[in-house]
Design a protein that fits this description.
Layout (H helix, E strand, L loop, with lengths): L11 H14 L5 E4 L6 H10 L8 E5 L5 H9 L16 H4 L4 E5 L6 H13 L1 E3 L6 E3 L3 E6 L3 H6 L5 H7 L2 E4 L10 H16 L8 H9 L5 H15 L7 H11 L9 H29 L23 H5 L2 H25 L4 H8 L3 H10 L6
Parallel strand pairs: 1-6, 1-7, 2-3, 3-6
Antiparallel strand pairs: 4-5
Helix pairs in contact: 1-2, 5-7, 8-10, 12-14, 14-15, 15-16
Amino acid sequence: MSKMIDFLGESAAIVQLKHLALQVAQTEVTVLITGETGSGKEVLSRFIHAHSRRSHKSFIPVNCGAIPSGILESELFGHEKGAFTGAVQGRKGYFESADHGTIFLDEVGEMPLETQVKLLRVIEAGEFQRVGSSETIYSDTRIIAATNKNLQQAVAEKNFREDLYFRLHSVELHIPPLRERERDVLILAEHFIRQFERKHGISFDGFTNDAAEILLRYNWPGNVRELKNLLESLLILEKGKQITPDILDKHLVQRNKYKSLVHDPEKSEKNELNLIYNSLIKLHQEISEIKQLLGDRGGPHEEHHKMPLLLPPPLSEKSEKGGGKERAEEIQTLETLEKQAIADTLKTFNGNKRQTARALGLNERTLYRKIAKYKLGED
């Protein structure tokens, strides 16, 4: 009997996705799951299988992108003894082993065209032949496929068969990236932490509120897989102690695959200053437009929303190549502006760091670091 599993999440998108998945689980329709790498496509496929009439039979996951193209056909459909060099005995393929169960074809977009022809035949007639054999074998197997590729584009580029695409596309279930479902981050985090506490025998003291806020606002380029791996590292390397923003920032920076291997602090500082400058200009314009729409009836609250009006220009390429005292004075002026801008924006939003970071175009980790750098809030 298949273990009943859940696809965790309470965001509107995930609630709707689970509803659709439960609907198709009770049918025999072929399903195509799409979504970014690490978003949970295999978990959703297991969820569908676990709630289907085939749940008491095998669920076999196959990563088509991880199997060399030369042997993928043999892995899927089996082969006869002597069919190729090294085939010292015949063997069943995944489709035979999954008979009356479910096969999950992950990264189906990586499948070679010649193998796609055989897969199409299985979908249409439930039949195939082992490599090196002319005997037809029948398999009653539910097919769930997944991809992070744009298969329509692959079809246009002649890298994927159009007829196979339409057969796989009977029902498409799309998993949104984790960054678009903030509400699910802490739900998933709690689930993974409980798993790792049992697995490693470590008691976890949790996150501070500010650290939890960073988890919510982080972009999660690696999606749920990145969250899961990060939490396991935190639990083990920090020995279960409470996670603060500084600790979390250290681990996120180390894991950020988009971060340059050679860090240029001066260049990063310049970019951050320019980012804040541009964000302040935009924020001031938006506030001015709102005040104009309201008939400039700021009243006693007008002073509360006042933003700097005279801002020095951002660092230019010319000033970057300059140097000496003039450049030092320019950086100092911009740093003074940055400190004041952060202080003013914090005041505007009554100390709410999430809204402040969003208004300034910064991520919250950067904002926390700059608050500490300028010792804001200590007066």
